[in-house]
């Protein structure tokens, strides 16, 4: 353990999409804090995502959050003061194919972390959640607020609701200080290629068709990952204990509109689109209200979708050797 650091934060899933973007931001911004990246390096993670690997206030531990012995050893080694829990099985299609996978990581893994956080008297446990816990909206529904009811409609979103309720229970029962953030659909650098935007960019760069569900009319609220990271950090440091904060992008587009934006940017035509059978239980629309986080911290997303897409395409061009 590095004893010189008064604040020591375990970041689970730090080699994944949002977790790595958070570490690349926070490790540089807070050089007097230690960040312990705990990641199993599954399909959605990549050590190349972390660009601060040589920093003195960063360490990496390869471990499964569901492995109680391994995680207990990490807690004993570093005696963390804080936890930010990004690690999750987040692929909805995979959760539909085998619900046990996401339940193991998102429910059992979260519970094991909460037990360790409680036993080690962690000062704050920050759970990263999702807009999917609110379920599907119609076109006319207002964006969901933090007080809107849960309505999970697939195994992934149900597992995230379960994780949230577990944290709430640990806060109420054991006094574990905790906060929750629910983010809308993130996009940007470091996202694994199973998700819509990186998958479509990759396919188009490699001359393959892009598989679009049904007619592409499903609507998502898009948020650039850099904006999400800033909001997460604000809540992590200033959020009120026991509270939940929505982090929405405020830019709603259908999947077809997103696809057309990618086609235009990459100078492709709609001949590259292959319409495929819809996902079972495919939620029609997600949208979040940012009123609470804006009122408390003055946070608003800064990166417009058109600009974020340009940054994202450039990232994948470089990673795939097309620049």
Automatic annotation (TrEMBL):
Gene Ontology annotations of biological process type: nucleotide-sugar metabolic process
What is the annotated signal peptide range for this record?
none
* Pfam families on file: GDP_Man_Dehyd (PF16363)
Catalytic function, reaction form: dTDP-alpha-D-glucose = dTDP-4-dehydro-6-deoxy-alpha-D-glucose + H2O
Q: Where does the NAD(P)-binding domain lie?
A: 10-312
Q: What is this protein called?
A: dTDP-glucose 4,6-dehydratase
Give any GO molecular function from the UniProt entry. Answer: dTDP-glucose 4,6-dehydratase activity
EC number(s) on record? 4.2.1.46
Q: What is the lineage of its organism?
A: Bacteria, Candidatus Kaiseribacteriota
The entry's family comment says: Belongs to the NAD(P)-dependent epimerase/dehydratase family. dTDP-glucose dehydratase subfamily.
Q: Which organism is it from?
A: Candidatus Kaiserbacteria bacterium RIFCSPLOWO2_01_FULL_54_20
